[in-house]
Amino acid sequence: MKHLTLLFVLISLSISAQKKTKPATTLSKPKLVLGIMVDQMRYDYLYRYYDKYTEGGFKRLMNEGFNCKNNHYHYASTITGPGHAAVYTGSVPAVNGIVGNEWYDPLANRTVYVAEDTTVRAVGAGEAGVEGKRSPVNMHTTTITDQLKIASEFRSKVIGIAVKDRGGILPAGHSADAAYWFDAKSGNWITSTYYMNDLPQWVKDFNAQKMPDKLMAQKWETLLPIEKYTESEADNQEYENVLSGEKLPVFPHTVANYGALLTSPYGNTITKEITLATLKNEKMGQGKETDFLCVSFSTPDYVGHATGTHSIEIEDTYLRLDRDIAEVLSKLDATIGKGNYLVFLTADHGVTDIAGFLKKHKIPAGTIEMGKEVSYLNGEMAAKFGEGKWIKAQDNYQLYLDHELMAKKNVTMNQVYELVKEKMLILGSSVYQIINLHDINSANVPPYYKPLIENIYNPKRSGDIMILFEPAWYSGSKKGTTHGTMWQSDRHVPLVWYGWKIPQGETVEQTYIADIAATLAALLNVLEPNGCVGSPIKDIFSKK
Ligand code: ZN
Ligand code: ZN
Fold first, then answer.
1. Are 502 and 360 in contact (CB under 8 A)?
2. Exposed, middle or buried by CB within 10 Å (0-12, 13-18, 19+), for 25?
3. Residue-wise pLDDT tens digits, 413-456
4. What's the farthest any 2 CA atoms get from each other in the chain?
5. Which letter does DSSP use for residue 526 in this model?
């Protein structure tokens, strides 16, 4: 009997040993990573239009993949350049240097653009186009795409695509094979000499199809009958912008020029089409190494700014984008195979509801004009400290002071700060707090918010004083809306994972944008980007 028991134990042990999976002799890798960014996609868009999404787009990612429902930006300047840089560097503006879409450069004594590079020139724009002096040189740290390149001896292919240059360039990183963006003058997809001296033949052929012109010949009608747009307000609202060449902000819209094309779902159509063409012609995901395609859909941002978060225009844009994403995924199934590719979807920032819309429903909100605030403050400074242009520039709610003038007139940083506080922080104003960016530690804001401000301060590129307005207040016109603040509507964005090694599930644990690059690094077994401040999202790994 004893022997029998022992035999049974031995057999069980051997069975359980066999059941254990043998350690892999070679590392498993996905064929392709597809990073999808949706410009200005706030978290709630996943759910507000859920019932109208198809099974193959957002719903497929959410229900078959892993949904991080509580995912936020971890810094205060929620703008396109910083957002794209943060996702791929896993870092913050303070460290990666991407503090805005533009910032004042004291050495050059001018405002510089995030993706500008005067040493390169446009490729493919023809005579009509000038936009092209673009590269990622202003970004100080590596991206996850750079790290993949380094780990594969630069054999992995990395390409960035977006209508907006910064949306394609920053994600693709420093060592990318290519980034392509849309030149609204020539109507061509272009690149710069940073990447190549001539467009690949397939891009020339793609441009020669004149797809934008064909799309412009159509009107923008709603995808569904207009009465079905019950997640939106009635079509004609006084706080919606009138689109280019039109008289009223109502359907059907004419698409008057290439610029207007980008403020219509056709901007996503051309992005989807060049994505499919890139996958095919560059044979992405068909080599030995993992390739990485970074796609950013810029159009939701253009439409969102123009007509806001409760417009039929934005609802229609998302319903159509859902179908575009479904098409890309089913193409990947057919070419690379389900389970062989890894997808993540997120956004570069959220958006605030139109102030006029909120006010109509008695919710506190409003608009201010930073230009006016700056000239008022300049006048107050001149009155107190003497004549001069004390504020040299204003960007991202930050004031850049004239330090030479301050030294000459013996005016200290603290004196200026106290004056700005005295003039701006008065009862009944829309200002929440004034921050001395040289002394964020002493800022009198709740501990939750302090890191959001610390994470944007870069000593070479940030301003001196930051003006924080109250929630739902923003600088801009009374028509349309924007983003760029540290409040939740601008910081809460979707994060959905799908495909290779991704379990099905969801979490409401706090995740941050910087965790994306850290998670990718852990999944791909490569080093995280050199300025990464995030951590791998544990739930994605523990549920396997
Ligand atoms: Zn954006
Ligand atoms: Zn925007």
1. no
2. exposed
3. 999 999 999 999 998 889 999 999 999 999 999 999 999 999 99
4. 104
5. -
Of the listed ligands, the closest to the CA of 164 is 1
CA atoms within 13 A on the CB side of 399: 28
Mind telling me the catalytic residues?
Answer: 80
- The torsion angles phi and psi of 13, rounded to 5 degrees, stand at -60, -45
Give the ligand with the smallest distance to the CA of 79: 1
pLDDT attached to residue 25: 85
What number of other Cβ atoms are within 10 A of residue 23's Cβ?
A: 5
* DSSP code, position 492: B
Nearest by Cα to 368 from 467, 301, 440: 467
Q: How far apart are CA 91 and CA 405, in angstroms?
A: 34
DSSP string across 28-97: ---SEEEEEEETT--TTHHHHTGGGS-TTTHHHHHHHSEEESSEE-SSS---HHHHHHHHHHSS-HHHH-
d(CA 270, CA 255): 14
Mean per-residue pLDDT, 356-384: 97
Residues 103, 335: Cα–Cα separation, whole Å:
43
Distance from residue 269's CA to the centre of ligand 2 (Å): 19
Query: Which ranges of 97-156 would DSSP assign to H, the alpha helix?
Result: 144-151
Q: Which two tokens stand for residue 369?
A: 């004009």
Digit-coded pLDDT (tens) for 98-148: 999 999 998 889 999 999 999 999 999 876 556 679 999 999 999 999 999
Distance 111 CA to ligand 2 centre (A): 18
Q: Model confidence at 1, in pLDDT bands (50, 70, 90)? A: very low
Residue with tokens 């809460």: 492
What is the Cα–Cα distance from 283 to 460, expressed in whole angstroms? 41
Q: Are 168 and 161 in contact (CB under 8 A)?
A: yes
Residue 489 C-alpha to ligand 2 middle, in angstroms? 13
Q: Answer yes or no: are the C-beta atoms of 104 and 393 closer than 8 Å.
A: yes
Beta strands in 171-299 (DSSP E): 178-183, 188-192, 291-297
- 100 CA to centre of ligand 1 in angstroms: 11
Q: CB 97: neighbour CB atoms within 10 A?
A: 20
Strands 158-162 and 102-105, bridge-based pairing: unpaired
Give the pLDDT band of residue 5 (cuts 50, 70, 90). Answer: low
